[in-house]
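In the current project phase, we have settled on a layout for protein records. A sample record is reproduced below.
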Amino acid sequence: MNKKERGETWLVVVNPNAGSKKGKKDWDIISALLLKHNISYSQRFTEGKRHAIEITREVIREGYRRLIVVGGDGTMNEVINGVFTQDDCRTTDVTIAMITVGTGNDWGKMFGVPMEYEDAIKLITANRICLQDSGVVTYYNGTELEKRHFLNIAGLGFDALVVRRTNRAKDRGRSSKAIYYWTLLRSLFSYGHTSTEVIIDGNRVSNDTFSISLGIGRYSGGGMMQTPNAVVNDGLFDITIIKKMRKGEIIRSLKKLYDGTILDHPKIEGYIGKSVRIDSDPVIHVEADGESLGHSPIEFTIIPDSVNVICRSPVCSDKNSE
């Protein structure tokens, strides 16, 4: 297959361990459906953490420009990081679709990606493309400064603790929504707060903070809306800061995380901005798209209109009407 043929063929990145190994168990079903709907493809299987980043770089170098992620939000995040850390083409030359076999599907919810495999494949054949923003976060891992790209939401404080504990459970082969909610509840009673200074486009906000979310998309944690007003191509992060609260008050407010009214709470503040820096005492940890990263000081920047994705829902702003 030459480069021109690869450019017209889908490359499927399959995470066999996603969704308690659903990626492996259901691949025969998914591959048969791809053929049924006349999708020309090749496939690569990941073999561990960060492997999807390497695969993505390799296949773009080989000439592939259309990628299907068979996995969860974490696999999507690795593919995105592969796209942004290669130098063979512009990121906007690449189109990404998803067939979800993970447990959360938070990025997919924003774009109306169906959970049913055949419906997700029909969406790919419809070839409706949205150009969305992406984010980049720089943080410390010990004394080392590191960087990560993300498509959906980054979380700090309590959110990062829940993700870290959930990922440890996944590494032990325990992956389900029940495990996630148990981890969330257990973390709630062990986590306190952190004194933070958040600088949003030069404006300082100081708080005793429970958690911070920076959203390009709206959904995280299996359907929670911590950034309910986010628009994926407005060139802005939606930032939600949950200030120090009593445990009982947090539990009573959980409903607001699911019905989109979180910003109505008097101890929750919402902002928008293009660049964000977060300092804290003690250090505060960060996750992005469900991937555990490092700690403060942390900086975020938005990269507008930088990723082509297959979508169904009209979630993008109509810039031509502005």
